[in-house]
């Protein structure tokens, strides 16, 4: 009922739940606690988030919450398309500072699991994109941190050629990886 594959950073997963299509459209179970847990996605999600971005080129991130309020994130797109990125910010990790990216869209119906210890961000690739995601701890502004999306030390290859980027003030002024409090 769900396909799960590890991305190049193996703790980051792509999930594709099964769609049941018919002449009306489709039905899909977009989360199933027992089935997801059987595939290693066993964290308890306590909060659902949703963001709407009017334009393509809206870039949100790179964000994370520090321990003890770190969050796992299960991200999907209700409308539109994004390029989603996870960055390993665990100092002791063999892949510290490395990133992985995945296109997620309402059409594909795919999802990404970004575990604790990773910074998360995305850029919208279509207008009127709606992103919905589950998190495994509540929002805690005191633990909320950001890393500069275009930090050359991370070197994310954002597919933003020809896009007018739109960032929040917070994101445009974020620190680079080395200047940030990490895991
Ligand atoms: C994240 C969050 C935010 N807020 C409030 C705080 C701000 O007044 C307002 C906008 O927050 P922010 O600019 O952080 O929203 P995004 O830029 O979409 O950030 C999110 O998108 C990136 C890609 C992420 O991975 C994070 O989960 C999250 O930080 O919503 C809340 O009330 N609760 C929350 O859980």
Automatic annotation (TrEMBL):
It catalyses: dTDP-4-dehydro-6-deoxy-alpha-D-glucose = dTDP-4-dehydro-beta-L-rhamnose. Pathway: Carbohydrate biosynthesis; dTDP-L-rhamnose biosynthesis. InterPro entries: RmlC-like, RmlC-like_jellyroll, RmlC_Cupin_sf. Its EC number is 5.1.3.13. The keyword Isomerase applies. Keywords: Isomerase. SUPFAM superfamilies: RmlC-like cupins. One of its GO terms (molecular function) is dTDP-4-dehydrorhamnose 3,5-epimerase activity. Belongs to the dTDP-4-dehydrorhamnose 3,5-epimerase family. Homodimer. Catalyzes the epimerization of the C3' and C5'positions of dTDP-6-deoxy-D-xylo-4-hexulose, forming dTDP-6-deoxy-L-lyxo-4-hexulose. This is dTDP-4-dehydrorhamnose 3,5-epimerase. The gene is rmlC.
């Amino acid at each position: 009922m769900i396909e799960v594959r590890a991305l190049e950073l193996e703790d980051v997963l792509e999930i594709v739940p099964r769609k049941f299509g018919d002449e009306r459209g489709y039905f899909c179970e977009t989360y199933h606690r027992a089935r997801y847990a059987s595939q290693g996605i066993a964290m308890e999600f306590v909060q659902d988030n949703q963001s709407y971005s009017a334009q393509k080129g809206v870039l949100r991130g790179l964000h994370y919450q520090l321990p003890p309020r770190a969050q796992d994130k299960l991200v999907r797109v209700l409308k539109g398309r994004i390029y989603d990125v996870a960055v390993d910010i665990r100092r002791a990790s063999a892949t510290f500072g490395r990133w992985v990216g995945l296109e997620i869209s309402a059409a594909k119906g795919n999802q990404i699991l970004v575990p604790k210890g990773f910074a998360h961000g995305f850029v919208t690739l279509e207008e009127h994109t709606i992103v919905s995601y589950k998190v495994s701890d509540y929002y805690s502004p005191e633990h909320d941190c950001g890393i500069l999306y275009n930090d050359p030390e991370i070197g994310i290859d954002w597919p933003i050629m020809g896009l007018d980027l739109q960032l929040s003030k917070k994101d445009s002024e974020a620190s680079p990886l080395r200047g940030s409090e990490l895991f």
